[in-house]
Structure prediction request, 341 residues.
Amino acid sequence: MADPSGPEVARRLRVVLVDDHRLFRAGVRSELAAAVDVVGEAETVAAAVVLVLDLQPDVVLLDVHMPDGGGRAVLAGVAAGAPSTRFLALSVSDAAEDVIGVIRAGARGYVTKSISADELAEAVVRVAGGDAVFSPRLAGFVLDAFASSPPVPDDAPAADHADLDRLTARERDVLRLIARGYTYKEVAAELFISGRTVETHVSSVLRKLQLSNRRELSRWAAARRLV
Amino acid sequence: MEEAHGVTVEAVVVGDCPMSPHLLAVVAATREALVNAARHSGVATVSVYAEITDDRVEVFVRDRGKGFDLAVVPDDRFGVTQSIVGRMERHGGKAFVRSSPGGGTEVHVELRRG
Prediction:
């Protein structure tokens, strides 16, 4: 399914930048130049959709907010037209609703623009390999969204694991450490589990975010809107 | 905080609750931990994670800076560490400091609610 990820990947990843600020794109392009090939840039939703369909890049770095609709609109426009392209949301946006929205529209992760160049390159590789990328802020949003539901026991029967509205205790542990600023590697060391297991937990949380029937998510989003 | 000390604070907050005098101690301890990180860590970013649940409030202040050896704490660090721990204990809470040379520092502040 997914390409084997990691530094051993021989082919350089092809990346498209979608952001309405030219200066920001230029900055990201130069920061990432050593690690990936930036094959295209777009500053509007319409241009982004055409470009992604045309280039079929490995990864699209997607701004959450743009004047004509933003990341969600790009994801909706591309739809199934670029099946092997993966999207990573990159934004300064603080609005939980928007961030969760872009994840539910299909992005594999969310990072804030304060991320370092090395971390961003690492996140691009991870997303290209089919894994999920959770920044501290996204982890916090998810914990908040699922806060009111009791955890699923880790040893629950498989049927209960399919419960998309709840997190397992272990998933919570992993998210809390990410929210505290731990890297995946540090999370693994802290919980005495492998890096691969951390990835599995994070991917499972992403799946719940994307597929949950939103009993908890919509309740939370509604409460947020009142604040 | 960011302007005064030239660091970026990455703050993540989960949950919410009304303010109380004991919570002010948590805020003050957090502030102290942040200033400490800004002054001594040598790095430009500090992470803050605050989680409020029905029965407790927890805050973690973490930097990836130079850290220090808790067994041989320099006087200035000892003072700050003690004042954070002491402040929390006076308010019925707890504080823990984890640090190692080269491994950064994390201050964990905890207070039971109700």
